[in-house]
Hints:
- The chain is of the alpha/beta class.
- The chain folds into three domains: 32-190, 3-Layer(aba) Sandwich (Rossmann fold), CATH 3.40.50; 198-432, tm_1862 like domain (pyruvate-formate lyase- activating enzyme, Alpha-Beta Horseshoe); 438-492, CATH 2.40.50.140.
- It has helices at residues 18-25, 36-52, 68-83, 107-126, 142-151, 167-177, 222-225, 234-246, 272-280, 300-308, 325-331, 337-350, 369-382, 409-432; strands at 32-34, 59-64, 87-88, 97-102, 131-136, 157-159, 181-183, 190-192, 204-208, 210-211, 230-231, 251-255, 287-291, 315-317, 355-362, 386-391, 438-446, 453-456, 462-465, 475-483, 488-492.
- It has a six-stranded parallel beta sheet, sandwiched between helices. A five-stranded mixed β-barrel has the order 17-18-19-21-20. Strands 9-12-13 form a three-stranded parallel beta sheet, sandwiched between helices.
- Helix 2 packs parallel to helix 6 (167-177), helix 9 (272-280) runs parallel beside helix 10 and helix 13 (369-382) packs parallel to helix 14.
Amino acid sequence: MILSRETPHFLPTKGMKSEYYDRIFSMNIKRRVIPTEEIEKQLAICSEVRKEFEGKIPLALVDTFGCQQNEEDSEKIRGYLAEMGFEMTDDEFKADLIVINTCAVREHAEMRVFGNLGALTHAKKENPNQIIAVCGCMVQQEHIVDKIKKSFRHVDLVFGPDELWRFPELIYTVMTKRKRIFAPGSGDGCVAEGIPHLRSDKVKAWLSIMNGCNNFCTYCIVPYTRFRERSRQPGEIIAEARELVAAGYKDITLLGQNVNSYGKDLESSVNFAQLIRKVNDIEGDFVIRFMTSHPKDATDELFAAMRDCEKCEKHLHLPLQSGSDRILKAMNRYYNTEKYLALVDRVREFIPDIVLTTDIIVGFPGETDEDFEDTMRVIEKVRFDAMFTFIYSKRVGTPAAEMPDPFTREQKQAHFDRLVETQNRISEEKHREYIGKTVRVLIDGKDREDGVLTARTSGGRLVRVSGGESLIGSFVYVNITDCNTWALRGELV
């Protein structure tokens, strides 16, 4: 199936070259489902890899950059590695295998990856048999693969997100053939079930429900690195959620680049709101979170499900990106500020105490002082509980990378600093409203620096509370006594 030019799911914008328009509409959006027997073959290959170490317990290091979807991918990589007999290490000099799972969303992450890759030459010199693999979104870009080939010759394996399912086969080939392998992927987009997970957390679990994105925001590389939307079958998701609850997980986050559009590519009639209700029906004491939502697909049905499902946390992350209608159109965001504000009013009608968070990009190509002031007006009107703020990062291969951008980094930084200062004020004001209240929280960890327990409210607000480690994984009530911009402070009730 090829997306037609008449499909209203993509709107070309001013400044977009025809080559991008053609590229988008030539992308294959068929689902490539990996048969169960193929995954079984990969698990069999894991046994062959184990034999290669002749009784030695090999060590592996998995370094992850980027979003929660990458974290979930790394859990699959660790799952396969465990089947191969590997144990995990944080020491690159002791590792027999190093996997760097990359992110392509911002330039800073790419620079850190290249820096880390360069540093690994020292570990490779001490252990010439060490295998170094690079995977994730970065390697879906041709110029990145070329750079790794030419400048990082100590890298043995490169594979894209859609080749993760055959990771054992790729590793075994590198080990036995002693040659470099580059497998960035075909770009079809696949769905693979049955890959083992090795999760690093015992309380919180990522549960991927879909992958890819159909929206083609002009600044975003994700549709070119994760490809088109592919939803998992609802039965597979519910089965995995049940397994997580049975294993004692208390905080389950449903993941997707745009969870609101879940199921649109399936013959099944289950949409995202209905999926939340199905997960909510699983017996057990746990909470449901999800990310990320695109405003254009947020509906009353979703808000009603969030309101009605007692296990669904009352938190909605709703990326705004800009408060300027002109910039939103250039970003290809499908809505204007009037529609966004109406959506905020609507969700607050359903859930008056909803915790709202958002993303804002400062310095999109051509953003003027007036455009930025429009954003500030929306921020003051909505009063988000928290915000993830970014200065625009140019991504090769996206339409925005070719747009005129006459404004300096210093101008963008000044806007960014003002935005952060304003949101910090609002966040602290919102947090002060909690003081004196008693809230139910999930104790999910311990601060490494001061030993204080960390917890989350129903809206995902961070709470710091004193107590014993035995409380980790428990729901408790806490009286909020103090706060700052980033967290609440409480005492156990």
